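So, does this match?
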Amino acid sequence: MRVLASFATLVAAVSAQSVIESSSFGYGQSISPSSDYLPGWLTGGEGHVPQILSDKLILTPPYPGNTRGFLWSQTPVSQSEWTAEFQFRASGPERAGGNLQLWYTKDGQDKIGTSSIYTVGQFDGFALVIDSHGGRGGSIRGFLNDGTTDYKSHRSVDSLAFGHCAYPYRNLGRPSILRVKYTQSVLEVTVDDKLCFQTPKVALPEGNTFGITGATPENPDSFEIFKFVVSSSSSGSSGSIPVLQESSQQGNNQQGSSQQPIVVRNAQEPVVQTTDSQATPQQLVDIGNRLQLVDQATNTLVRDVAGLASKFEDRHAEAMQQMATKDRVASIDARLQRIEQALAAIQRDLERKDYSSSFSQLHETLKTSHLSLHEALHDSLRNIITAASPRMGFFICMIIAFQLVLVISYVIYKRRRANMPKKFL
């Protein structure tokens, strides 16, 4: 199989290398016997649940964005030296982004969950980050933490990387092969059989668990996982631990014969062989399910496109109704031309004529109107005052009559007093 082509070099170099089955997937005929779960792993996410297919696992989808996905092994690694092979693919539009993390930590499911290197808190272990850091087209960086550094609140998480290399991982059209090899003397990271970085100063304890997390922004990348195999080079491995081998037939390659991978479960079980030209019933069922999903998605897209087309036609008809006809546009244009001509004629008349005499006449007219109004108002006020005031002759007569009444009353009083009898003592 093509998936095992890069693994052949490692198998040839290291004898008696065994796969740690509880921490691995994708090394057999299919990733999982069921599309509902991944044996030995916990799967989940935010905004999307990782989709398990026969040959790959979609950690984050191409649509929609702002999603997260995680895979966490349920079994800690008890080996002190190990090699992890990780095959992934990232695809998306030109300006898409996201990050993919490979973790080897303590209590990863509880303390990390769906977090990325930028949103994780205090974790204990090793993290390998694949993203477009700095806009350079892609990079692979290594991070370490002993549980004391809170990455989420750190001012510059990028400065905590202890090793890195540039790697344009997006839209390659093929899976990228990433290997992490840890021994008591060195930690080595290679990508596509090329050294990325290595260091002898890292010590990773036994008992940690592996995990994979992915996070995407609004414009997302789709991260697909094809294979994750953890192997141990311990010579004391029992026969019950699965061993992955690849037979080579170099002499028959020129005659068209293909290589056949052999999965040996133990020394007593029969050997199971598969070829690329054969498909199992399970694979056919899975292909049928995938075709049904594609058909459903296509039908949904067709319905959406039909709805959009109907809305577009309605809006186009409404716009056409609101648009003026050719005759109306010509009429409006003619009216505007006549208005412009009239304004131009008025402007020319104003420029030619001298209106000083007209203004003088207007001034005299206003002056005459003001005088007439003033005289009329003065006469009206005088008449109103005269009509409303009492007559002076009547007032004088009243005064004289009052005085006469007083004189007559005094005379009468004197006469009566004179005629009264006199009293003598």
The first helix runs from residue 7 to 13. The longest strand covers residues 222-232.
